[in-house]
Write a structure and sequence with these properties.
By secondary structure, this protein is an alpha/beta fold. It is built from 15 helices and five strands. The chain has helices spanning 14-26, 37-47, 61-71, 88-97, 109-153, 158-168, 174-193, 198-210, 220-223, 231-238, 240-248, 255-261, 284-297, 307-321, 328-337; strands at residues 6-10, 30-34, 51-55, 78-83, 101-104. Strands 2-1-3-4-5 form a five-stranded parallel sheet, with helices on both faces.
Length: 343
């Protein structure tokens, strides 16, 4: 914690703000005071206070929402509620949001300072716990990524990488690798329907096969859906594309595949990543894989035996994405050509 911990005081009553602010300043805290939730969120974003003291005397849902937002930050802010009563509603709200408690009044400086100190201590414990979790997740990701890099460096083709990955990441891979196979089948069919050259079709095939493999560096419990996805896991998930590209730079034989794969997550309207390409600036091969990926991703929510539901879910997904995520001309071709090859 900082040498002089910061408290964000949120209270509509100006006299209460002055009184509580003086108590906190005398107790050694740096105090920021605001009178509404919107201002409190702006201050929290700029200053990252250690504790927020929020008045809920009127059982204001807006203040409960503010408390939940502050508690849900990557580095949570400790929260103390002040209230004019000890109603069950106040105590229940505090428990549900995980705040340190409700201070009645408060009747004097000691009540408020003790509550703020408890919240600051709780916040420090949570911050340390979050750091431990993050370090654990990042350690797993680093180790698995190193294994993936070794596989890529030793494999002359995308098919060889895929086979080696399948053998190495046995427990975490079935659904993800099955998705990659289906996307590859669809993308290759679409590439051939456009009469692309055999070399380009081969690059489409390799890039589609590898497009999601960076996710395999995540902990198995996350891949299998057995563990909640926290901030560290989400960061690792969002970075999976750069990890795949990083590994492919170690295999010169896959330069063509890497060139296609680099733009697979770009969007037709420019809102994708990693560069923000748009329209026809996105390589056509990458646009093909994006359409096949969107089609297959939409179908996972339906039973495998329900072929009609699978097809209709995929159709709806790519039709909805035409002009935003996906090339609209390519989508029209996809709807006519690929239904049978993606089932």
């Amino acid at each position: 914690m900082h040498h002089r911990p910061t408290v964000l005081l949120v209270h509509e009553d100006i006299d209460a703000r002055l009184r509580f602010g003086n108590w906190l300043s005398a107790g050694g805290y740096r105090c920021l005071t605001v009178d509404d939730s919107a201002s409190a969120l702006r201050f929290a974003g700029r200053t990252s206070p250690d504790v927020a003291v929020i008045d809920i005397s009127r059982h204001d849902r807006d203040k409960l929402w503010l408390a939940s937002r502050l508690r849900d930050r990557a580095t949570p802010i400790g929260v103390v509620f002040t209230s004019g009563s000890t109603s069950y509603e106040d105590r229940d709200a505090a428990l549900r949001l995980g705040v340190s408690g409700v201070v009645v009044g408060p009747r004097g400086p000691e009540d408020l300072l003790d509550a703020v100190q408890r919240a600051a201590t709780q916040r420090d414990v949570e911050e340390a716990r979050a750091l431990d979790v993050r370090q654990g997740v990042m350690g797993i990701v680093a180790g698995r990524h190193a294994a993936f890099q070794r596989i890529v460096a030793a494999s002359p083709s995308a098919a060889d990488i895929f086979a080696a990955v399948r053998d190495t990441f046995r427990r975490g891979q079935p659904a993800l690798l099955a998705h990659s196979v289906r996307v590859t089948r669809a993308a290759v069919a679409l590439a051939r329907a456009h009469h692309l050259s055999p070399s380009v079709v081969a690059d489409v095939q390799g890039a589609a096969l590898l497009h999601d493999l960076g996710k395999l560096s995540l902990p198995e419990a996350v891949l299998l859906g057995d563990s909640p996805v926290g901030d560290a896991e989400m960061e690792a998930l969002l970075d999976h594309h750069s990890r795949t590209l990083d590994a492919l730079t170690r295999q010169p034989a896959l330069a063509g595949v890497a060139a296609v794969l680099e733009s697979v997550f770009e969007w037709w309207d420019g809102r994708g990543y990693p560069v923000g390409l748009s329209g026809r600036d996105i390589p056509f091969a990458a646009r093909i894989i994006a359409a096949a990926d969107a089609f297959d991703a939409a179908r996972v929510h339906y039973p495998a035996h329900d072929t009609w539901a699978h097809r209709e879910a995929g159709r709806a997904a790519i039709a909805h994405g035409a002009g935003s995520r996906l090339d609209p001309d390519l989508v029209r071709v996809y709807l006519h050509v690929l239904d049978g090859s993606c089932s």
